[in-house]
Amino acid sequence: MKTIIEPFRIKAVEPIRLPTAEHREAALRRAGFNLFRIEAKHVLIDLLTDSGTGAMSAQQWAAIMRADESYAGSTSFLRLRETVEEIMGFRQMLPTHQGRASERILFDLIGGAGKIVPNNAHFDTTRANIEHSGARAIDLAIPEAADPTSRHPFKGNLDLDRLESLLAAESARIPVVMCTVTSNTSGGQPVSLENLRATRQLCRRYGVPLFLDACRFAENAWFIREREAGQQERSARAIVREMFDLADGATISAKKDGIVNIGGLLLLRDAELFRRASDLTILTEGYVTYGGLAGRDLEAMALGFHEVLDEDYLRYRIRSTTYVGEKLLEAGIQIVEPPGGHAIYIDACRFCRRLSREQLPGQALVVALYRHAGIRTCEVGTVMFGARRPPPLDLVRLAVPRRVYTQSHMDYVVEALIELFGERDRIRGLRIVEAPETLPHFSASFEEL
Ligand code: F0G
């Protein structure tokens, strides 16, 4: 059969409805044209993020009832630790309430003034936590990552030449090299095993540890299986294990490939660092066997890590995102090619061709798509990163929650975008009225030009 189906059926449903045009307009104005500030009940299809928005399985919900809520040494913690050891090969792990808590603990310990932390492309919270510690965050993606039309199969790869020059000049100031799998800010693009292995070698040569930002580890592994020479016969599990075996540690937001609504992990091989991270976890997250989560969250996470490696799931997951990307490309809408794993990224400068960068084409498209069809998306561009260091592109991300929307939902999204594309010269630019210094996109307000 050619058709790749959703490999699940639906047991519980949540109604969604399209608010009227007047309601959408009023909601936009109340929110200062910032979709983070709109009440979710006014959204029809929510592609703001794939984080914490996945649908849990019947098994996960059952496990939630079975969970052990003991403060210390809970059975649910032990089950999660066993899972993490089996899948990722790390014995020392700390649960945290989400990815950025793991980042905060890590960079409190190894960041600080004068330090430099390279990554293929830092996610905004990672960058913010590094800078909050006083250190400098540097992106070292391969040049193809900045070209939306490049079909390089691994646009998440680290630029090894630039990494080596940096390590040769500054290794004493580099506490860790990070690699984000898949690279969210460059379009949900994967990192190859070959690139990870070479990064590992460079790190070893210069005595610097390698950490993964492993939120979407399973999607990355599936791309490796599909695209990298010699990997087609391996299981996603085996590839995941090799990815983690190359690393000295990892920060993970389980809200993505853990398929849970909340939770994160910090994985560490170094015993002394683990001891210090445990002390910090107790200080602000909670005791080391729950780390700011309930036992039921740990239980759901343990199962989520198994379920995400189901190959029927991964095949469907990557195919269904690709499907949206292909339909948009066919209609002449430039996206970051090739389509990403968890999201499709539209090149908003090309879409809103009449708007200059100062008129915030990404945010303008986000607003227009909500206004047109009740669809919520997210700008990844000048608003997210700030005009002080404008990114190479203004993108609009359509992030696809896991196991939530069906093909007809996504057909609606495609149709809405194609309609809007026909009227794109009428999309109005925006101006920032108010924005905080850090992570401005969450709370900024705008006005239309
Ligand atoms: N690293 C990456 C690559 C991420 O995509 C995220 C979150 C984090 C770290 C932080 O994890 O949210 O659990 O604290 N990304 C979400 C997104 C918010 O929409 O892409 P968190």
List keywords for this structure.
Aspartate Aminotransferase, domain 2, globular, three-stranded antiparallel beta sheet, alpha/beta, binds ligand F0G, 449 residues, 41% helix, 14 strands, 12% strand, 16 helices, Aspartate Aminotransferase, domain 1
Note the topology.
Blueprint: H1 21-30, E1 45-46, H2 58-66, H3 75-88, E2 93-96, H4 99-110, E3 116-119, H5 124-132, E4 136-139, H6 160-170, E5 177-180, H7 193-206, E6 210-213, H8 217-227, H9 236-245, E7 249-253, E8 264-268, H10 271-284, H11 295-307, H12 311-330, E9 343-347, H13 348-351, H14 361-373, E10 375-376, E11 378-380, H15 382-385, E12 395-399, H16 407-422, E13 430-434, E14 445-448
Parallel strand pairs: 1-10, 3-4, 5-6, 6-7
Antiparallel strand pairs: 2-8, 7-8, 9-12, 11-12, 13-14
The structure holds ligand F0G.
Ligand F0G binds near residues 184, 213, 253 and 255.
Write structural notes for this entry.
This protein is of the alpha/beta class and 449 residues long. It folds into two domains: 21-50 and 311-448, Alpha-Beta Complex (Aspartate Aminotransferase, domain 1), CATH 3.90.1150; 58-307, Aspartate Aminotransferase, domain 2, CATH 3.40.640.10. The protein is built from 16 helices and 14 strands. A five-stranded mixed β-sheet has the order 2-8-7-6-5. Helix 7 links the parallel strand 5 and strand 6. Helix 2 runs antiparallel to helix 11 and helix 8 packs across helix 12 (311-330). The radius of gyration is 21 Å and the shape is globular. The model has no long low-confidence stretch (mean pLDDT 96). Ligand F0G is lined by residues 49, 51, 98-100, 123, 125-126, 180, 184, 213, 215, 253, 255, 264, 399.
